[in-house]
Write a structure and sequence with these properties.
By secondary structure, the chain is α+β, with helices and mostly antiparallel strands. It is built from six helices and three strands, in the order ααβααββαα.
Length: about 110
């Protein structure tokens, strides 16, 4: 089954695995040593990350090294950016409204009436 990157990053353990692998390649045991879950559970998370293209597994002798592939996260970044622009505009409009509603000239006009 082909999974998407959103499904992969939905789980906090998988996000932490990505953070861990962002600084160095690790074996499955090396990854498992950083978590309080079983090695089979780590393998399951790695499989999901691998299926969506976030982790590449490279055999080296008897070991299998996992390394992160950040390119699939660009899809997430593009999706988030559209909402970031939307909310930035909304908050800017709110800030402008509040600033104009509480400006001294507006308050003085209200008091004089």
């Amino acid at each position: 089954m082909r999974r998407d990157v959103f499904q992969a990053i939905a789980d906090p353990t998988r996000r932490e695995i990505i953070n861990l692998l962002a600084s160095e390649s690790l074996t499955l045991n090396g990854i498992a040593d950083n978590f309080h879950i079983s090695r089979p559970a780590v393998s399951k998370h790695i499989k999901i990350l691998s299926e969506c293209g976030l982790v590449l597994i490279k055999p080296s002798g008897r070991e299998r090294y996992c390394e992160v592939q950040m390119k699939p996260l660009q899809e997430v970044n593009l999706w988030v950016q559209q909402y970031k622009r939307f909310w930035t505009e909304k908050f800017d409009n709110l800030e402008n409204f509040l600033a104009s509603a509480t400006s001294p000239t507006k308050r003085n006009k209200k008091i004089k009436k």
